[in-house]
Write a structure and sequence with these properties.
Radius of gyration: 40 Å
Structural class: mainly alpha
Oligomer: single chain
Number of strands: 0
Shape: elongated
Length: 607
């Protein structure tokens, strides 16, 4: 999201300037009050002259002001003279006074006379009474006359009834006429359709239209519309605009927007401002924000404060609070408390808590208690739990059951599970399937998978022409690239193999580098091959050092090389000692050669 500066300091989320000052607002209010007083005087004079329209307007003015007694007389007089707006307002007044049936009578008169507002009010009255057919009739009358509230109320009624087509039609009509809640609800409908539509093109159109209606709702001050618009923009990477809408929504009191703004600020490096918004959201009951505050304090080592916020998250109904409390206790070695919190979250359906609880039980030796929780977590979609079940079954030699869970985890992208499936396919002789899974695992970062994939590809390669050390290198094959990937991740056998391939290409420096890296990591083959390379380059004393390390680690060929070196130097006893070791280490052909050398050295020593 750009630099790591404080976003409030830079003003990147600031609202547009040009807002009126407090003094200007006060002056405007005073002017409006003066204008209204003058208008009221004018209307009263007109009423005294018998002006019916003035009676209706003055009654409406007094009704808005809350002067019911003053309004009623004027509204009744105007209604008696046939003013339908006055009849509607008289119904409103009576409804506010608690005379709902009498209000409905006046609304009906006004509605029959063509008042869309009265038809809307009458429709609402019948819906409150549970008379949906009558409600639909009058709301339809109102909506068809272009009354925005009537269109929205009709859409709401039809949605409640399950008439999605009719509901969307009237919701759209209300939204197009400026009803912000209708715009938001229409956007939500389109959003759900985009997520359910199997046609990608149709889903994209629905998502685009949903965004436009969210934007309309947000622009009209709908705080949830602003929240959803911010979410869409954040997913698309338009973080600056997303932040502005989150800020707008958060300032209007939307806790989820304040929480989302906090995460946006944290990702920008502004942790202090993030904490401010998380605090605001958490105090408004947002469990996710409380968890974020808990994690922030846990990272700082403030465990008591972290625990307080995790408890607040839990109290807000967020199961992550109990799970995070379990993690916090586990990190502190409070195993009993960790188990209690894991259990609480797990019983509430938290799949990762179920997995964590199972691991805790397994470490305590309770395998029978762990398995049901692994199963519960895996069935709820926990990839780690599915993999762990595979390990559990493999440990019992239940290979088919283990493979089934490994396959399930691998299908969800679990790297180590894909490796296990690939290895199983190799054992079964299904090399093509093995390659597919090994590629997935290797692509996910598994060094062992990269090495195994390289060996599969290596076995298919046609024999390369022989090269002498020092000859120019050739282009690397795919298998060598996978060997190198595994080698760069510290895989010792891969490092040895990369060294061998480099040596075969004539790249002595590269070969020595990889042999040395493997040898220093404890590879006896690496140490032996490095010794061979050094000996060929004329550095036998250093070669002896590496052969000695390899032989001490159990490498029979290295022991034989040492026996030959010391025999050639005339150190017969030392040569015999290494020959004895080579015989015991093998393999067979090495043991046979070492035995002949040992016997010869023994005869020489006894001569």
């Amino acid at each position: 999201m750009g630099d790591m500066a404080n976003l409030f300091g830079t003003g990147r989320f600031a609202q547009p300037s040009g807002q009126p000052s407090d003094q200007e607002e006060a002056a405007d209010e005073a002017q409006e009050a003066a204008d209204e007083a003058a208008e009221e005087v004018r209307l009263r004079l007109a009423v005294d002259g018998g002006d019916v329209e003035a009676m209706s307007v003055l009654g409406a003015m007094l009704l808005r002001r809350g002067d019911f007694d003053g309004a009623e007389s004027h509204l009744r007089a105007a209604t008696a003279a046939g003013d339908r707006a006055a009849a509607n307002n008289l119904g409103v007044l009576l409804h506010q006074r608690g005379y709902a049936d009498e209000a409905a009578g006046w609304w009906r008169i006004a509605a029959v006379a063509g008042s869309a507002a009265a038809a809307h009010a009458l429709g609402r009255h019948f819906r409150e009474r549970g008379d949906e057919p009558a409600a639909e009739y009058w709301l339809c009358q109102s909506a068809e006359q272009g009354h925005v509230l009537g269109a929205y109320a009709l859409a709401d009624l039809l949605e409640h009834r399950g008439d999605d087509t009719g509901s969307e039609r009237w919701m759209r009509a209300a939204a197009e006429r400026g009803h912000r809640e209708a715009a938001y609800r229409l956007a939500r409908t389109l959003d759900r359709r985009a997520g359910q539509d199997g046609d990608d093109e149709a889903a994209a159109r629905a998502a685009d239209e949903a965004e436009q209606w969210y934007r309309q709702a947000a622009a009209r001050g709908h705080r949830r519309g602003a929240l959803h618009l911010g979410t869409i923009l954040e997913k698309r990477g338009e973080l600056k605009e997303a932040g502005r809408w989150y800020l707008t929504s958060a300032k209007d009191g939307e806790a989820r927007a304040a929480c989302a703004l906090g995460f946006l600020l944290r990702d920008a490096g502004d942790t202090e401002s993030a904490a401010v918004w998380w605090l605001r959201a958490a105090q408004d009951g947002d469990g996710n924000a409380a968890n974020a505050l808990g994690a922030l304090h846990a990272e700082r080592g403030e465990t008591q404060t972290a625990e307080r916020w995790y408890r607040a998250a839990m109290d807000a109904g967020d199961d992550n609070g109990a799970y995070n409390l379990g993690l916090l206790c586990a990190e502190q070695g409070r195993t009993t408390q960790a188990e209690q919190w894991y259990r609480r979250a797990a019983y509430a359906g938290h799949r990762e808590a179920s997995n964590a609880l199972a691991i805790l039980l397994l470490r305590a030796g309770d395998e029978s208690g762990a398995e049901p929780w692994f199963s519960r977590a895996a069935e709820a979609g926990s990839v780690d739990a599915a993999f762990n079940l595979g390990i559990l079954h493999a440990g019992r030699s239940e290979e088919r059951a283990a493979l089934r869970w490994y396959e399930r985890a691998a299908a969800a992208g679990h790297t180590e599970a894909a490796l296990q499936v690939g290895m199983a396919r190799l054992r079964a002789g299904n090399e093509r399937e093995a390659e597919r899974f090994l590629r997935c695992a290797a692509g996910g970062g598994s060094a062992e998978a990269a090495y195994r994939l390289a060996t599969v590809l290596d076995a298919r390669r046609p024999p390369a022409p022989a090269h002498e050390l020092g000859e120019p290198t050739q282009e690397k094959s795919e298998c060598e690239e996978w060997y190198e990937r595994a080698a760069s991740q510290g895989h010792r056998r891969a490092q040895v193999r990369v060294g061998m391939l480099a040596a075969a290409r004539g790249d002595v420096v590269e070969a020595a580098r990889w042999y040395r890296e493997a040898a220093e990591a404890g590879s006896r083959n690496g140490a032996f091959n490095l010794g061979l390379l050094l000996a060929r380059e004329g550095s036998e004393p250093e070669a002896v050092v590496w052969w000695r390390r390899a032989a001490d680690a159990g490498h029979g060929r290295a022991a034989l090389r040492l026996a030959l070196v010391f025999a050639r130097r005339g150190e017969l006893a030392e040569g015999q000692r290494w020959a004895d070791l080579a015989v015991s280490l093998g393999p067979v052909e090495v043991g046979e050669r070492a035995a002949r050398l040992r016997d010869a050295l023994r005869q020489e020593l006894s001569a």
